[in-house]
Amino acid sequence: MKACQVSVVVPCFDEEEVIEAFHRALLAVLEPIRHTFEICYVDDGSGDRTGARINALAAEDRRVRYVSFSRNFGKEAAMLAGLRMSRGEVVVLMDADLQHPPELLPRILELRKSGYDQVVARRDRTGEGALRTLLSAACYRAMGRCMDVEVVDGEGDFRLLSRKAVDAVLALPETDRFSKGIFSWIGFDTASFTYRNVRRAAGRSKWAGRNLIDYGIGGLVSFNNRPLRLAIHTGLALALAALGYALWIIVDVALHGVAVPGYTTLLTAVVALGGIQLATLGVIGEYVGRIYSEVKRRPHYVVRETSECPDRGMRPPGVLPDAESDAEPGSSSGVHVYEGRRRT
Ligand code: UDP
Ligand code: MG
């Protein structure tokens, strides 16, 4: 079989309204490029007809492959599954909603020819809601200050990875995955360019405000322990301030006798300290929670069916579909994929 040059990995969750338009747009760009390619769709447990549409696309075109999850596991898990199934010399990660314009692919592949192992298409924030822009900018500023890896506003998952870079990403075994950090952590020569943000072609975004804040916290604690250090520093600074205050009170009492009981000061100090203690406990809790989920070593996702093995002729649970076991020969993290059963 001729080696595949380009794999396009597309995580999809409830994208029935847009998936076919996306597929047509993608083919219109890929076919004229003189590369062999495959399109790897990951149906992240969609509740609509996304799975059926992908299935039909794969049935009529051998260049289309897919994996379907038993339920929604999130975009991080979907990207991981796509990277594992991909066979191309380079892999391009793209959203299904046409917010990652397929027309940019030739430019991305051109940059790859210059020898870059990662090519990042960075979107600006044209046409985005004011609140979301503000929240995102604040998130990135905070992350930029606190993280050991560099994350850039607008640089997301729309990127090309060379096979070397894909292998590096797949070699990271963590359960709790924060791709933006992982892509930065693996390093390699990276090129980036900016494109004008486009609105979703159809359907709706799966990100709510709360998700974004959780995502920010996840990013913060995924790649460093600076928040823990910050807690220690704040604690020390407060302890010193309290000591100074106590000394001052003692001197004051010695010089002027017992003053009027200062319950306001007391109350303020108690509430402030209580708040800081709670926040610190929260920070520690985040890390403990992560350790807990890492030690359980659960798979990132459960596969319901794949194009290599559609949902007939069940294999025993735990047996990997070929493409996935190919992706990680002999690797212990191969057990991240189990076969699940279709819901009835
Ligand atoms: N997605 C996914 N699983 C999820 C949420 C999203 O696979 O749980 C996919 C979604 O189908 C789309 C991409 O991730 O292809 C980006 O999602 P979305 O457009 O909702 O995010 P936004 O562009 O608003 O950040
Ligand atoms: Mg989108």
Task: Give the tags.
binds uridine-5'-diphosphate; 344 residues; elongated; 11 helices; 15% strand; single chain; alpha/beta; 47% helix; binds magnesium ion; Spore Coat Polysaccharide Biosynthesis Protein SpsA, Chain A
Q: Write down the overall geometry.
A: elongated
Determine the CATH topology of the largest domain: Spore Coat Polysaccharide Biosynthesis Protein SpsA, Chain A
- Any idea what the radius of gyration is? 25 Å
The overall average pLDDT, rounded, is 81
Ligands, deduplicated: uridine-5'-diphosphate, magnesium ion
- Could you list the spans in which at least 5 consecutive residues all have pLDDT below 50? 312-344
- Mind telling me the CATH class of the largest domain? Alpha Beta
Number of helices: 11
Percent in strands: 15-25%
End-to-end C-alpha gap:
37 Å
Specify the CATH architecture of the largest domain.
Alpha-Beta Complex
Query: What is the helix fraction of residues, given as a range?
Result: 40-55%
CATH homology group of the largest domain: Spore Coat Polysaccharide Biosynthesis Protein SpsA, Chain A
* Number of structural domains: 2
Major sheet: arrangement of strands = 7-5-6-4-1-2-3-8-9
Count of beta strands: 9
For the report, how would you describe the main beta sheet?
A: 9 strands, mixed
H and E order: EHEHEHEHEHEHHEHHHEHE
Structural class: alpha/beta
Quick description:
By secondary structure, the protein is of the alpha/beta class. The protein has eleven helices and nine strands.
Structure description:
By secondary structure, the protein is α/β, with parallel strands linked by helices. The chain has 2 domains: 4-222, Spore Coat Polysaccharide Biosynthesis Protein SpsA, Chain A (Alpha-Beta Complex), CATH 3.90.550.10; 226-296. 47% of the residues lie in helices and 15% in strands. It is built from 11 helices and 9 strands. A 9-stranded mixed β-sheet has the order 7-5-6-4-1-2-3-8-9, with helices on both faces. The longest helix has 34 residues, at 263-296. The protein starts with 5 loop residues before the first strand and ends in a 5-residue tail after the last strand. It binds uridine-5'-diphosphate and magnesium ion. Magnesium ion binds next to loops.
